[in-house]
Amino acid sequence: MNNRGRILKDARQRSGVIREFAMLIILLVIVGVLSILSPKFAQFDNFINIFKQTAINGILATGMAMVILTGGFDLSVGSIVGLSGVVAALLAQGNYPIYVPVLAAILIGTIAGLFNGTLVSYFGIPAFVVTLGSQSIIRGLAYVVSGGRPVFGVCKAYENIAGGKLFGVIPYLVIYLFIIVLVVGFVLTKTIYGRRLYAVGGNEEAAKVSGINVKAMKMSAFMIAGLLSGVAGMLLTSRAISGSPQTGEGYELDAIAAVVIGGFSLSGGSGKWYGIIIGALILSVLGNGLDILGIKSFYQLILKGTIVILAVYLDVRSRRKISA
Amino acid sequence: MEKMALEMRGIVKRFAHNTVLDHVDLSIKAGEIHALMGENGAGKSTLMKILMGIYTKDCGEILVEGKPLQAANPKQALENGIAMIHQELNPVLDMSIAENIFIGRELHKGPMKIVDKESMLKEAGKLIKDVGLNISPKKTMRGLSVAQMQLVEIVKATSQNAKVIIMDEPTSALTEKEVKVLFKVIERLKSDGVAIIFISHKIEEVFAVSDRITVLRDGKHIGVLETKNATHDQLISMMVGREIKEIFPKVEVPIGDVALEVRDLCYCDKVCNVSFSVRKGEILGIAGLVGSGRSETASAVFGVLPKKCGEIYVNGKKVEIKSPRDAVKKKIAYVTEDRKVTGLNLIASVRENITIVSIKNLTKRFLLNKENEKKAADEYIAKMKVKTDSCEKQVLFLSGGNQQKVAISKWLLGDPEIIILDEPTRGIDVGAKRDIYLLMGELVKQGKAIIMISSEMPEIMGMSDRIVVLSDGKVSGEIERKDFDQERIMHMQFAQ
Q1: What is the mean pLDDT of residues B359-365?
Q2: Third-level CATH fold of A44-323
Q3: CA of A212 vs chain B CAs: smallest distance (Å)
Q4: In this complex, how many residue pairs, one in chain A and one in chain B, have their CB atoms less than 8 Å apart?
């Protein structure tokens, strides 16, 4: 067993290292190929643009990663984006101070996460069912609140939250993304809370016996996902200068895709924080590059789906190798 | 010359540069019960996986009834008369006994090949009656006990004309009574000319049931013993490669005040009014058959299961334990029965597993500190003699014994006063067992109180100062070390 274990471990370590770097390498290869194919791609402005396009999905993916770490997932984040965005737009007409719509969006997201987390943790309903249901409920609420119509008339100060640029160069959106990813990275690697998230996802039963409040951990992960979805909804409204109840449809899949491509295992307990940003970047670089090359967005959908399946297959295969 | 059911000659298996089987021989006569013994990592399972076609051999030959066999997968092995009853059974729980027996080769009738339920039920009924199962073949597997499922698996194998049946730790989840039934079935198979390869860690059982014993060590063939001429010591020394004079290194230490007292504990109908206490420096054994409520008692004390009623006193003071967190705060530790299911995070590293319970004590200004964690993990790796090349290795890749040592370390790091060990040596090799016994001695010397749950009679009698016997969720007896008597304990276990 010792011998066999060592070989397996070598193989695994090698495949682990490869897997961790694989996504970064793939990202660089895609960037390289696109740079050769189109001179318009490798421009400073375009890179800034790509980061900007990554921001919303990156923020959603960060929240999603917390839930996936504990072994769950959240299909309602796109709807939370819609509801919090609409509410923020309604409150950002200039009648209230600027922090009111911002806090309202964040609060709505957090409450939605609390709802999901409570049902999953304390009522024992599978995450798939809970978040599929709340996806519909929250989307419905977005339509009710807005009367089914987009909300215009957002004030200038609010518009500036996501629309502005630092030194006139780096969009605030990109800065928010990096702050959020770095904070979550810090939480995951440096705090007891982060360690316990991994422990819960790795083996829930063992975590419970070890004195970890598993239910509270899982619930908190959903709350963070909800909170960050609220932030994303608020930022989207600011960028679009309006809130539409339809905003965010299908975003949950992009978020899950980024997390999975970034090396997180859907069974929970493994994944590195920087994988989230790499996963999100791969998706937006592809989107951006194919746009520049003039390839229709229809094909991008097909490609995106294929990549997700491939990424999960890689994870499944590396697991199967170990257990063999 | 006697007819050989199975011969494996000069089997070599390498993984990359490591030779895990080095010219291993195994020959089984028809109608023989042949035990395959060796510590974890000796190569038993690799050898069996080669036989079943799960691994391919690098060298050597396999003959079944004199004909060469090269199975590429378990299905082909089965077609050639070799079947394996796995340690963990995987029946289709919501299908009937009959459907499980005929799974993949359903009896059918007519040109549309419609499943012939009638014949299947009739046939299955006959088969299971033969092994003494007097239940309807219509029953779903879900309703059966592990022992009954095992018998169904055996029936499935024999009904496919298996000539060699491999049984991997078949008794690990059975009660004493069920083991007897199983042995009867094995004897019957033997008289029908079926050869059995019996893999077990329980030496008593091997001596009780086998005709011959093949011993492997470190991937090498050490020897074959005729069971009736062999002794325990001889077998053990062949397995470990050294003499073990004292299997249970019991140390005598002064026994102090009561550390933990449990009064009238109830949980569902599995534990009824169970009371016991354990003192500082004492090892309290809890004996009982599977299903007697041993593990449920421990889980209810520790707050894993919600107790219905009962009081718990730590150092004479009444405490409320509603969750494992409360128990940890009261300096109680609980090494669970199944390290893979409730003990360890297999995909995490040795370091992360050892530190998870006491992570708070290893932080620096509220932040995780890898240096502190490494120091703590390495200390326990050395203390517990965990074989691993670094504390960053995933627990998944350690052998059973080393995993168990990690599962114990994670609790000891928190310096508990009361330690509950549920089957601390299940499925681990002799060397690791001894390390754990020695550790228990160390712990009681430091004045800790230990509760050990075990279903192995020699172990519990060898290590305990006092034994509480559970039967059917109730305390059926209590014995002091000086009065230990296997027969008496056995009787208490079966008490109603």
Answers
A1: 89
A2: ABC transporter involved in vitamin B12 uptake, BtuC (1.10.3470)
A3: 7
A4: 106
